[in-house]
Amino acid sequence: MNQIAIVVNPKKKDSPTDEGGYVKGVITYMITDNLAVRPMSAISCITLLNKINIKDVGVLEEKTVDIGIDEGVKLLKVSLQSKAVLTDAFLEKKAGESDASNSSGVHSIVI
């Protein structure tokens, strides 16, 4: 049995504040080291911090990354080799630091 399926992208509206496409409205998203994408909320942040055993939020660092073609290719390559994709792709290792852990003992970084 053959059937024709038509796949259509959601319509984009004229204003950047209109809802349209795959991302709805003005929402901030959190991308974790394992590339899980979730809407950012206070409860999801607290849950994640508890999950990775962070007691002092002062040890955390926010980093904004502009992604172009080169960074996209690097991200794709690292995603096939690592479970800590964002850390390995965008955070430079300090001298003497191994892949297994870093100086703060945190194994996951939220960017």
Automatic annotation (TrEMBL):
Specify one Pfam family.
DUF674
Q: Which InterPro entries match?
A: DUF674
Q: What is this protein called?
A: Uncharacterized protein
